[in-house]
Amino acid sequence: MQHVAGGRAEIIEGVITPGSPSRAHENAAEAVRRQLTPRLEELGLVSGSGTLDLPGSENWSTPDPAVVPAGLAAKTEGALLPDRTLPVVEVTSPSNGETDRPAKRRRHGRYGTPVRLLVDRQQRECTVFSGPGRLGHAEVDGPHPFGSPVRLPAPFDPDLDTGRF
């Protein structure tokens, strides 16, 4: 999210959405980070919540987190480009669920995000989107109810424990 007067916000489909994630939202994002961390270290990757630019549009967003190569993260001062991420994780909140579901699926797929994990706290399910293309992500694995293991594509082979969300 970009910082604006009074807090943080993102723009999706031209709509400014203020954000101040709840503790439950942050806990779900942290549960994903903790499970990915051992694999990230092996692969020379890092996770964080930097801004993603969607070039050629008025849109930008902040995933919860995005995973990127450590060298790229160290060099990037501004927003990252979606095609340089390796998964992007979005955790829904009551205020942004409708944006995180269809709009970000189209936008992230169109701009080349290879893998996007949607942790939908309101629906209590996780979905993995991959196969980016002109119309969005073409491949969908899920939804998987919380408590079911969810597999991210290689190189993230271990299943995620979704019972922690």
CATH architecture tag:
Alpha-Beta Complex
Largest sheet: 6 strands, mixed
Q: How many domains in all? A: 1
Question: Strand arrangement, largest sheet?
Answer: 4-7-8-9-10-11
Termini separation? 22 Å
Which structural class matches the secondary elements? alpha+beta
Assign the CATH class: Alpha Beta
Mean pLDDT: 82
Could you tell me the number of beta strands?
13
Which range best describes the helical content: under 10%, 10-25%, 25-40%, 40-55%, 55-70% or over 70%? 10-25%
CATH topology: tt1808, chain A
Strand content: 35-45%
Element-level helix/strand string: EEEHEEEEHEHEEEEE
| Coarse morphology | globular
Can you count the helices?
A: 3
Q: Which regions have little confidence, pLDDT < 50, spanning 5+ residues?
A: none
CATH superfamily: tt1808, chain A
Question: How are the SSEs ordered, and which strands pair?
Answer:
Elements: E1 2-4, E2 7-12, E3 15-19, H1 23-43, E4 45-48, E5 52-53, E6 60-61, E7 66-69, H2 70-75, E8 86-91, H3 97-110, E9 115-120, E10 125-133, E11 136-145, E12 149-151, E13 159-161
Description:
By secondary structure, this protein is α+β, with helices and mostly antiparallel strands. The radius of gyration is 15 Å and the shape is globular. A hairpin with a 6-residue loop joins strand 5 and strand 6 (60-61). The two termini are 22 Å apart. The chain has a single domain, classed as tt1808, chain A. The mean pLDDT is 82. The longest helix is centred in the first third of the chain and has 21 residues, at 23-43. 35% of the residues are buried. It has helices at 23-43, 70-75, 97-110, and strands at residues 2-4, 7-12, 15-19, 45-48, 52-53, 60-61, 66-69, 86-91, 115-120, 125-133, 136-145, 149-151, 159-161. The protein contains three helices and 13 strands; from the N terminus they run βββαββββαβαβββββ. The strands form four sheets. The protein has a six-stranded mixed sheet with strand order 4-7-8-9-10-11. A three-stranded antiparallel sheet has the order 1-2-3.
